[in-house]
Amino acid sequence: MEKITILQQTETIFKKNWKFCIGTGRLGLALQKEYIEHLKEVQEKINFDYIRGHGLLHDDVGIYREIELEDGSTEAFYNFTYIDRIFDMYLDMGIRPFIEFGFMPKLLASGDQTVFAWKGNVTPPQDYDKWYDLIQAVVSHFIERYGLEEVLKWPFEVWNEPNLTNFWKDADKEEYFKLYKVTSIAVKDVHPDLQVGGPAICGGADEWITDFLNFCENESAPVDFVSRHAYTTAKPHKVTPEYYYQELFENDYMLKELKTVRELINASPFPDLPFHITEYNTSYSPINPIHDTTLNAAYLARILSEAGDYVDSFSYWTFSDVFEEADVPKSQFHGGFGLIGLNGIYKPTFHLFSFFNQLGVEQLHRDDNILVTRREDGSLAIAVWNMVLEKGDGFEKHFELDLPIQNNKDVFIKRQTIDENNGNPWKVWKQMGRPRFPKKDQIETLKEVAKPRIRTERTSTKNGRVKLTFTLTKNEVCLIEVNPINDETKSYIGLDDSQIPSYSKEWC
Amino acid sequence: MEKITILQQTETIFKKNWKFCIGTGRLGLALQKEYIEHLKEVQEKINFDYIRGHGLLHDDVGIYREIELEDGSTEAFYNFTYIDRIFDMYLDMGIRPFIEFGFMPKLLASGDQTVFAWKGNVTPPQDYDKWYDLIQAVVSHFIERYGLEEVLKWPFEVWNEPNLTNFWKDADKEEYFKLYKVTSIAVKDVHPDLQVGGPAICGGADEWITDFLNFCENESAPVDFVSRHAYTTAKPHKVTPEYYYQELFENDYMLKELKTVRELINASPFPDLPFHITEYNTSYSPINPIHDTTLNAAYLARILSEAGDYVDSFSYWTFSDVFEEADVPKSQFHGGFGLIGLNGIYKPTFHLFSFFNQLGVEQLHRDDNILVTRREDGSLAIAVWNMVLEKGDGFEKHFELDLPIQNNKDVFIKRQTIDENNGNPWKVWKQMGRPRFPKKDQIETLKEVAKPRIRTERTSTKNGRVKLTFTLTKNEVCLIEVNPINDETKSYIGLDDSQIPSYSKEWC
Amino acid sequence: MEKITILQQTETIFKKNWKFCIGTGRLGLALQKEYIEHLKEVQEKINFDYIRGHGLLHDDVGIYREIELEDGSTEAFYNFTYIDRIFDMYLDMGIRPFIEFGFMPKLLASGDQTVFAWKGNVTPPQDYDKWYDLIQAVVSHFIERYGLEEVLKWPFEVWNEPNLTNFWKDADKEEYFKLYKVTSIAVKDVHPDLQVGGPAICGGADEWITDFLNFCENESAPVDFVSRHAYTTAKPHKVTPEYYYQELFENDYMLKELKTVRELINASPFPDLPFHITEYNTSYSPINPIHDTTLNAAYLARILSEAGDYVDSFSYWTFSDVFEEADVPKSQFHGGFGLIGLNGIYKPTFHLFSFFNQLGVEQLHRDDNILVTRREDGSLAIAVWNMVLEKGDGFEKHFELDLPIQNNKDVFIKRQTIDENNGNPWKVWKQMGRPRFPKKDQIETLKEVAKPRIRTERTSTKNGRVKLTFTLTKNEVCLIEVNPINDETKSYIGLDDSQIPSYSKEWC
Amino acid sequence: MEKITILQQTETIFKKNWKFCIGTGRLGLALQKEYIEHLKEVQEKINFDYIRGHGLLHDDVGIYREIELEDGSTEAFYNFTYIDRIFDMYLDMGIRPFIEFGFMPKLLASGDQTVFAWKGNVTPPQDYDKWYDLIQAVVSHFIERYGLEEVLKWPFEVWNEPNLTNFWKDADKEEYFKLYKVTSIAVKDVHPDLQVGGPAICGGADEWITDFLNFCENESAPVDFVSRHAYTTAKPHKVTPEYYYQELFENDYMLKELKTVRELINASPFPDLPFHITEYNTSYSPINPIHDTTLNAAYLARILSEAGDYVDSFSYWTFSDVFEEADVPKSQFHGGFGLIGLNGIYKPTFHLFSFFNQLGVEQLHRDDNILVTRREDGSLAIAVWNMVLEKGDGFEKHFELDLPIQNNKDVFIKRQTIDENNGNPWKVWKQMGRPRFPKKDQIETLKEVAKPRIRTERTSTKNGRVKLTFTLTKNEVCLIEVNPINDETKSYIGLDDSQIPSYSKEWC
């Protein structure tokens, strides 16, 4: 039993860094109707500020082309037909691009090495002048179309995970620094106030952070922010044609990592730079079934609660299962990263984010399992979770909260729950026999069961305080809202529900 | 414990008479946006064929007017601006008008007596020739606008509850028969195949049925159908400024009534006429809180199940709380008839109709508490209910079904429930302190809790049969769907959910 | 020929007072779907800040009711069901209410006198204490629902045209001042920063303005703004059962009136008060066909151009033909005030407002027939009109403009026209045989022809200036936009349209 | 001057073969939002029955994959995630797939040769058994998802233009016949009533038709229809990096071709087979600017009018410029095939189809320039065009029609026009400086000018006949509708528009 007594006063702010940015499948997918529908739902319920994905310069978006002239020579042709359609759509939805420059257009690439089923080219430019021109053309076009004031708000990040050989040829650090310098100068040459950063590395190579910042200092490369990724799974211990199975580290593992890197930056020549986690999740694999589970939500709850202490943003990877890194999804549930699964079905982690989005700014209490906030209108909003990595039954967790209520009114308590039996379409889909390509009625059922369970009650307040006791099942995540009641019952003159057949006083 | 063993074979058809027609508040309200939104939802989820309401000729729809000519005389002016807008909308939604002629336009009325807060005039025409002209003009206009083929499908009913003094001056039977004859002839003079009927009486005066049919026979008045209403509450035993409280009769009361009247028709000069119940509900009062309860749904379940045995249609009164007979609603829940409450909140009875709409045509079993059907695709759909008129706790009801399953596959069972604790926004609204004019977040919560609870499971089949045991709480109504599973699990090579952290074999 | 040479520099601002407020039919109509659809289109294309109409306290909105208690006494019951639905909708559309308190609820009225087909009661309250309570309850409810910050932006105007006997019993000035004082104090007692004003008179009785402000000074009645109406037609010279025919004054008649009243205010004890024209139009009659004509647009163009010099706002009466003051409209076009006619058909005056909404803030030139502005992006936007009150043909007007173009680029000129032959659905409807209740295909045609004619061309610039010559037909209103061209033609290497069959160089 | 006198009687039917089918870019594009929006508009205004495009089996739709098993072997995996999403969407829009089997999945291909920017593989299967399995799996899945009754209505066509070396390796006829036989048997083995056909050749190789049908006869290959393509341009005489320029043949060239091939079929062993033109247009190039012109519409008018005499269907290639055969479009107008251009802008040919969709079934007169029909409601609908291949000005064409009008009423005439100056967004775009990636306000203007010009008038009838004289400018296409008027003018008592200021009798 966790007993918590919440004081009336606090000056702690719960920061919204968790909703600064969200990840997406490669930008070319943003032309698709289902992608756009999922993003619309995410924005309505969670409303992120920025979106970041790979593939701005990949050949399906088609920005970099060459035209052959009459004399047989070629010249660059920059085609913005698709990227305009995509960014127009983002901005219409109230979300801004967090630009990632990559991967290499085939016509500019120095080699054939690619990553992902969609074959992003990961080799350095064969000609850095042409690359510089491309970066300038792209950034200039954005300003021409959207205005300088708007584009000054867009971070520009150079490449993705160059410390891995599959994302950057030979994980060649010197070559990356060269790319970074050319790119960042190309951006700043368009306008000096544009924000550029890197090195966008994945975990396990944090010496790159230090080296990168020293390089910027020594080589006078512009840098406005530092970026890194964070995942918390070990290498897969079992791999099938369709799935990766991996162990999870404890969830303070990620928090410690972020703290450590922040300290590295603090100790660097640029101690004041913002620090963005431009990707994070449990597993880095798009075919790990953990992403479809309730555990995923329960595990990440503490990250959303605490990671903002160390980083300026952290961007969940990704909002939707409209995603092709491991090929076209082979089944309704396939272990994809998405908050929303195929056919618009919410996964448990979607609700985790939606719950956090309903929290207040005033942080009254926080520990490993709970975050108590007060909203502007005086109501309390509490996120609470019971993450359990062990297998087996049981593991219930009991809570007793003693909460302050302004003006001593009775309260209306609304509790929204996702757990193994509620808001868990993955489980129902398994009961259905795991239909790969579900039919309309099956999709309808999966949508219906993908909603949180809601429980409500009315409780009386004593001396300006209310006591709440409740129990969380394994991997349950709850949002509990406590609203002082403006009771109008007495205004119904002569009201007596027990005069209704079937209803006694107790039922009403 | 009710134990039921269902045989494989049946030739009984479950008739859709229950969805032939739905009631509406006066037609003038059909201009309103909220009315139209509610009707749209009703049509999407239930899809009635016809809609019937008062007030076609009431002054707010504005059909009958007079124009003063230069010489000081007046002539009739028929204004179809509003009724065209209304009927265009109905037909766009796939619902046809079941016409009720009434009430009397002020300029044609012989007196001042009105009914309802909206003051429908209930006096005979001061000039039956002008009335005849009006009927002809109206019917002719419908044919001109919608085509004869369409209008031949519309029943025309003459007046509403003329056997009550508040709906027809002095409840004057002779005067009604006169009205009926003039009206029916006016209709038939437009086209002889148009369908006209009456006497639209409420219960308690069934001698009118016999008298009416004899009158038609003796006076050669055309008649194509017989209509009547049916409500099952006693007079109110308590009345407050906002509510009527009434006792309910047992629900076979209505079934017996319908049977009796059908026999009266059978014994009349027109034994083959269709018989339409053009209004029914528990209470006839628009401010009886019973309409907002789960009891209302549980009570009417048997009516939907069985009334089609006796009548060609029965029209639930009404689809929406956008309704003004007892003045503008004073509160979110006020005892209105609507399947949908103000602000688009589904009441329990909405789900009763939605559940019935998902039943199959093949009726495998029916008794007082359950209706088992098979759908065209071979799945079973079962409606089951536990209506309890007594006050107090308990009253659970246990069922054990032994069901035939084609091709012996495992089955996926989906059970949707409304009861006192699920799909019951009235209860949550009371917890909130009965807000009369709820705010957006309160409306959002009420919408969320107005959905049925859904439970799913997978069960194995033995020898082509499956056993289901379940318990219904007080006033619970369920839809249970049993779908044979097309199991694809084996196609996932190497699948093993127990490789996921937290999940053991038992959890998956 | 009007020749105008426009200088490059200006410091004159074209004020948006013309779009501060728009009139509406009585608030009860705001529940209707067609009303809401029209308002949505108006907001998309014109986007007014406020909306003002009669009937807030009329019985169909149903705010004031009384409940009978058990002891036989009654007490007030304030029902906000409908007004909440209406104001929620307004605010969702980005438009705020400009409150008009009126007319008298039947239960509070001291007499039976009514105005309009919808019977607004125009008698003083029988009990000023109950009236005070009502005003307080209403204003308090608005603050409770929408927040103080929001409601502080709403002007509260007391009554409508009390100087006319048909709008205020006996046009009793002393009684109005009493009503005003009680009402304004009731508002200020809720919060002292709320804005209240009057006397909302129609023209022809401007001594009321002076008397009213002296009264406020002498009796310490709060006053935050002065309001008045303005129409420019004489009494009808011909009246038929369906139409009023009236002569129009010259259109500077209204401008002079506004100037005069502004001077009256300046000379009063409250010289700094804002001055709102809370209604204006050509004719004050809802059945004058002039409202459906192109003349109406051409006539009002100068008002939109200049009235903002004298008044803080002027509110066109009204946005839609969903309107019932002269009964339910009897025909598609019936002389209603609306910018949008029944069935969503734009009238010429709609486009006048839409054209003005596309003007810039920088006013380069203005005279009786033309208003030349520059927009923030450097393009020019010109409204020009040729109002002709005389009958007969001819009356074309020629213009020659010499305009400054920044950076000397060629310009793309887009000219949108409404005149007797374009954007004139009234004319096409007459060709159709004036169908009162048009069918869907007729409505479709009327919608198609209700759009402006568009002409485009490309013109070259010389020395940073471009010359435009054009001719306006009788009653034509144009929006001319002049956009410097960012020419990309040369980037199409080898382009030659004359290589296409049928097209010679001249055609391309 | 063409003078035409139309008789009252006719028994000729104007067949709707022209709207049986429409072409589309490769199926993978059907996931995109803009594609779907364009198709929605096409269906609303034209409503084709079927849609046919390449790429069902291309790797981006992703149907054919292989999975590696634990023992190192592989097996086929059929992924229907995307094709289900696409066909669900088609059927929701009321359009059925006209299946084309092709191109070759990379994993099944015998070589590397590809066609188009999107690299469709055009080599035979490396293993015909696997191909047979694939076809069976695909067709079986369609039946499983959509039902046999539905899929029996889908034609299955084998490959695309195998007579061209770029579409089928070496244009190897024997290999194609082998492919055809295996494929058609695979289809028929799923269900013998499914319809299968070929050879889908382009023009210029009609001996394939004869050879193909003889092959089917000799080798007992099933065949249910014959298919072929038809384009009417010569080889390009000028090619730039962005455009093809080609000469057009006279437009009876195509009609003669169709007649000739129909005769070939008639003379074959299968004389009764249906004959489908599964692609046609002026130019076969997706970068020929002719597709953006008014000429394209004027040219094809006669084809729509007459081709149905010879073929059972002819499928315009294609409905939308969302198309990538020549890479991502580089500009707003780029010579694409689409009826609808990028950003939803209607091209002239869109209106040609929309005009034809409004014609009646009763064909009163037809010649090279005009098609006169009567609709069910008695109105006349006339398509008339003035195609001019010569360059230069002039070329107007005058018409005088003498038309029968039922019941001798006056008529309302609505004339919709597209020509070089109306409904021609290509021209306005050129005036704008050919912006490649237009901004929102430019797109808005292009949409506005992409609508037909509408002229209306009222004309009187004499002796049941009306005379129409009109002139068509170069490349003009018109729809003229002649509707008998139901005149209600007289019902407006006292009406006199000349009482309105500005309006004399002549204006009204």
From TrEMBL, chains A, B, C, D:
It comes from the Bacteria. Transmembrane segments: none annotated. Keywords: Glycosidase, Hydrolase. This is Xylan 1,4-beta-xylosidase. Pfam families: Glyco_hydro_39 (PF01229). The keyword Lyase does not apply. InterPro entries: GH39_as (IPR049165), GH39_cat (IPR049166), Glycosyl_Hydrolase_39 (IPR051923). The lineage of its organism: Bacteria, Bacillati, Bacillota, Bacilli, Bacillales. It comes from Evansella tamaricis. Residues 10-466 form the Glycosyl hydrolases family 39 N-terminal catalytic domain.
